[in-house]
Predict the structure.
Amino acid sequence: MTELMIEPDDCWHAVLARDRAFDGRFVTGVLTTGIYCRPSCAARHPRRENVAFFADGAGARRAGLRPCKRCCPDDVSRDERAVLGAIAAIRAAEQPLALAALAAETGYSPTHFQRVFTRHTGLSPAAYARALLAERAAAALTDEGSVTGAIYAAGYSGPSRFYAANAGRLGMVPSAWANGGRDVTIRWAVVETALGAMLVAATTKGVCRLSFGEGRAALEARFPHAELIEGGAEFSALLDLVIAAVETPGDFAHIPLDVKGTAFQEAVWRELRRIPAGETRSYAQLAAAAGNPKAMRAAGSANGANNVAVLIPCHRVIRSDGSLGGYAYGLEIKRKLLEQEGAIGKDLL
């Protein structure tokens, strides 16, 4: 008997959002109609008291329910198998695989398979392959003795392909990234805010560090070979934008960032930026939105690896039971951020 691994409250939130990322992770049994559906079913939502959640269709059928003819929940497992098989093939391949070849292995048309793959991972097959190469390159840049060696070790056919594929993604040029910010200028300042002393640092591409209770030493530890310049007219306009964003909750999308992470980390960070002010998500919801519903621990790690507090709002992730969970800069700052955004009441500790 398969056990439901998701808390009922998270299941219900996924149903209300018709979140396709949860398809295949559980089914919704509607006790009054005797049917079960996938979370994203377009049918009218039932009342919460009339709903039970099951790990899979088999569990729902044992309870006497039948599959919904509108959303066909038992077909989800086939989609999952197709996506997992494609991911394994992409990871094992030495050369990029054509969409038609991947789709042929599943029995789907290329158009339908691309739609299924994107729904489950958040990326198209081609984008997933590019992200995988970039992730391997990031690891190789740390381990290899030369940038060129790292490029070939990651699986690129040559330096030109690497630079073309990663222009705008890595921010710093690879040699600077591999050598603690060598040849990169980082401007920074520590300013007082309602949340305490805040460190803001930026390259020419965008904010690379926002933290609380830190100073120049934190930047020296992360970018030991970068040129660190405190303040300056070129930096002041960006700093003003950051301060305003922190002091007045809202949309941070207009503030450029220069951050680096694995493909999954960056997917988590993108999803964090999509959480509106005044709302929160659980770690399970975050993992699902980032394309890997089973990776709740990895989502938590990606949340903790965030170098740009507030602008990548990791404070908007709380535990499924409604408690705040952890925060790198202390729960008091997290509580204040959520309180000023209207996500929690003053009585929540």
